[in-house]
């Protein structure tokens, strides 16, 4: 083939130094579906809008943000140069809204809104002259509308011949030149202020998203499947050829400076989403930011960084702002270290090349050119952001060719595109490639960002799949896949007695089945052996029959229990839990047993206590001690409770490892779920000795697991973080660490930072003690360099054990001591040991319960959750057998990549009406791959089900709370299954619009599950029930501050004829934390007060458990998923992680009257309007207080079945003189 490198890499890079621009996400505004952003000419004023109600503005370049309005699904925004006016459009809002800034007092900003009525349609984009006199707006689908008198009058342009699916519009400063984009069409241009429009003939007929025009109209750019640029006012056009070409890539946002010399474009596709900039009017382009979007194109949703949707810049191009969605952030371009990048733009022969070099420094914008001739290539090494030197390496042809081909994604032998197409290699050489967005999870890093969405690629920080060496420019996430045990099933060899064989190490060899001499170990210590069949030692043996949660248990179990035989049959409809005590456990805590006894007295279950000890005598002693503990606890119960509790506990004397598979299926599970764990022991010459199983890391960022025991002296070194405050009772830290195991306090900086610091100082390992008694699975996330695997073990212990170790190290230290303390010798020893699971459960009526590391202290909650699930299965069976129930399956094991839609059949809506169904229950199951916690999304998120209606909703994938069917909140890192009462939504599903086939169900969150969703409609035995006749939406929520109540005005109405019953229904949840000192509205008790014709009795909904330490933990019996990760136990306002949200419903018939009726609504905190005070946790993942409200009034009559329900829906209207409070800086 001959040398390849001179044909390829000389066209890539000549020199690179330091880092390029940094795009910083603005925290505190929350994750939203941002749709547009606008920057003022001087860069000081920024405004952004989002669907689902968000209009924000900053008057100081993005440092401080103010809320505008939240009553519409905004699509586009424009601002006047001084920021005094904001122009917005949104689907079905009747036209253009002009917001005039009145004044700002303290923490509040006040606005007037002038609604320019045009037509109720799907408004999509807007453009204005700087003075706001000429306004152009587009409808998708529809017309281009133009006003030349500041919006007073409007005219639809008909020169385009027919309506188009318009997506973008822009104009010059004087309004004479206009440019428009549309889906499935060409680019359109007007040179006479919009009177006449013409197609750009050279533009392909494709999907165009956005356009931009310079101040004088001489330069234009359009973004779609490519970038189309004109430098002569639209006379001629050319496709930009130096930007990345990607399969499925779409440019969704474009922007340019006032003179058109600087341009920017953003988009997404396969395999990445990008922000690109040009400093020479679009001749050459530089990729500044890259975001992995593979998941979007292969599953319908971008789970990494959101879809980069729009971009804007100041008049000189110095200030740039982009927004992303699904969900996303506002991102502001900030300068990093001065950057010099040299690109090569010409190619000649294979052996010699004359190359034109285009060099510019991004922080200064200076440009130079030069010429070079070479037959070799120089590739620059990567430098850190603080480095000032640049290294260079001359690569040989063969090695360089392979690297370059890999970087460009070319197959061997494939010719590259012209050298200007090689510019994406910059992202590799400058360190700005997709690997920077590698997904990890929970970290202590104070600058962590996007932990929530990034973590969804890897389960709780664990790479999903084997690690691999990445080629330059390759996205790390492309090498990951969901963790599955299918390809690594444990071997399964049974001895002659039917007991599973354990791995045996002998003379450096590991035997997983039979030893060559025909025997095997029956436990981890090989205390007992048995003969095994050598005939199959070289043959593949099937794995254990029970390996994963939900696997059905179909065979019985018999065990020896204190001279009696315990028998369990799979047909028994009760929950079964094996409690398997590890070999070193000598007894159970009194409080743990007390909670289990209390639980066993109230629900049917079997608690089978066993031990991994191998001595029967030791097990009998342990069980005798446990029996003595149980007797007084059971005796304190009532006689009926006492009998139930006695039947619940089974104490088994057989060693857990020595159970024959012929008698019980349990060995299949204990063998499958066994794993290597790290044990940590501390000892000193003063008879101090303690052993513990620490919490280890998740992910591949540090050494996990030991081939041989490690014993080293323990050294206290403080926090290993700059400016970390130490507890005054702790001794001063040491500085000598080489050859020791570091004892470190958690806090202030990331786990990775602490471990890396310890390794750099020569430590052999690091033990971090936590904030409290609960330890966490330590993970790594950006901006730490998580790809650089540390070579020391990293472990976490509880705070009490950490402080006990400090007392042993420094026995005579008091809080008054100053300076280094005298440290005595404590040795830390780490060793690996195979260990069986602590718990194995079977759900009554189901299969194996989850393999979750919950521990004895949380077992009671787990059993309560199991009972909820058992009753749920019973409920499903009852409904299935009922003749008065209609079952409609919406989704069955559907892959849920953040959103699913389902056309609601008109026939189903009609059946509900004709069948006189009066109640609705919704069943939802969220499953994870292999039903393993590690494969579940690690964070809690709101999950909503809407019925989007054609002509009312913005799209078939709407987020319209007026059309809410159900709401849930997903759990932290676990599966979920619920039944919820949703009768309040039954009128919506049987409405006239639904019967007409105009409804589409939309299930939405930004997490990934496998979803099953079923509607269960039920009717009463009453032959003439009262049925919904009409339904009227009431109020929506919004930011919770002083503006909230003034925006929720009274509602007046009259009763429809023949009304017999009226109900008020609402979904109310509070969100937002870490911004104000009351931690509202998630963790504060805000109350919601309704009145009907002045009556308030029984019309208040409060949240008294919000902020309580165990407010959600106590609701496991109501469906809260038990033993989640994170802060799940804490009470929330109107919801809990891992639970459905109930409709709050009140029958208000008795307080209504003929003629006019009045409803009022207010929300208070501590009995008054809420005024947020700055404070809180200062956590960059927090966001201001919000109320998510859906409320309806439903009218019933006996004649309701005769016609579909009338929905009194109107396009949302903002209130005059609306105001929003400031977001605190």
TrEMBL record:
Residue span, Peptide-N-glycosidase F N-terminal domain: 887-1017
Keywords: Disulfide bond, Signal
Signal peptide range: 1-18
Pfam family, one: N-glycanase_C
A molecular-function term among this protein's GO annotations: oxidoreductase activity, acting on paired donors, with incorporation or reduction of molecular oxygen, reduced ascorbate as one donor, and incorporation of one atom of oxygen
Keyword Signal: yes
CDD domains: Sialidase_non-viral (cd15482)
Region (Disordered), start-end ranges: 379-400, 454-480
Compositional bias (Polar residues): 468-478
Protein name stated in the entry: Biotin synthase
Biological source species: Cladocopium goreaui
